[in-house]
Structure formats: structure tokens, C-alpha cells
Design a protein that fits this description.
The chain is α+β, with helices and mostly antiparallel strands. It has one domain: 3-Layer(aba) Sandwich (Glutaredoxin), CATH 3.40.30.10. Helices cover about 30% and strands about 15% of the residues. It has four helices and four strands; from the N terminus they run βαααβββα. The chain has a two-stranded parallel sheet with strand order 1-2. Strand 3 and strand 4 (about 65-70) form a beta hairpin. It starts with a strand and ends in a 15-residue tail after the last helix.
């Protein structure tokens, strides 16, 4: 998760999703790492394009970006988009996991 201090959408994600994220199957596949947008250049992640908006959720495999969600509208949209992105990864599919369920 690329975030910025004072970002109202980051704060909404923190309130609506963060408390349960680590308890979900999605978190086992895509553990959350928080990076300030100003520190992103030093993160070592090979990005497909610059990050301009926060929050931006990067799916990273072996140091390379393989998926991206930009922004946060609501928790239902977040879980649906995250599950779609995770389902596109090679290996076992997470598409049978109910969104946001531990």
C-alpha cells in the first residue's frame, strides 16, 4: 500500500479494511506492506509506471509489480478488485475465497 500522510482515502481504508485485512485469505497471498509515496523510489520495487495517487495497492512478485489498484472507493469494491487481481496470479486461484472473509 502506497500511502501519503493526510490522504483521506488512506484514512478510510485504514478504518474500513485495515482492522480485518491481516485475518483474511487475501492477506496470506498478498501480505500488506505500507510505503510512503516519498519513500517508494527506495523500496526496490520495479514499477510498471509511476505512482501518482494514494492509496495505491501494488501486487508485487519477486520485486516486480504484477498488479495495481489505484484509490479506494469502498470496502466491497476493494475486495472485489483485489480478489480479481489475486486470481490472475500464477498458481492456486483465490477466486473461490469469499471477498474479505477470514
Amino acid at each position: 500500500m502506497v500511502e501519503r500522510a493526510g490522504c483521506p482515502y488512506c484514512a478510510r481504508w485504514d478504518k474500513e479494511v485495515a482492522p480485518i485485512y491481516s485475518k483474511t485469505p487475501e492477506a496470506r497471498t498478498a501480505p500488506l506492506r505500507r510505503i510512503g509515496i516519498d519513500a517508494l523510489a527506495q523500496s526496490g520495487i520495479d514499477l510498471t509506471q509511476p505512482v501518482r495517487y494514494t492509496p495505491t495497492f501494488l501486487l508485487v512478485d519477486e520485486g516486480r509489480e504484477v498488479g495495481r489498484l489505484t484509490g479506494f472507493m469502498n470496502d466491497d469494491t476493494f475486495w472485489g478488485l483485489l480478489d480479481t487481481m489475486i486470481a490472475g496470479l500464477p498458481g492456486p486461484s483465490s477466486s473461490k475465497i469469499p471477498a474479505g472473509q477470514p
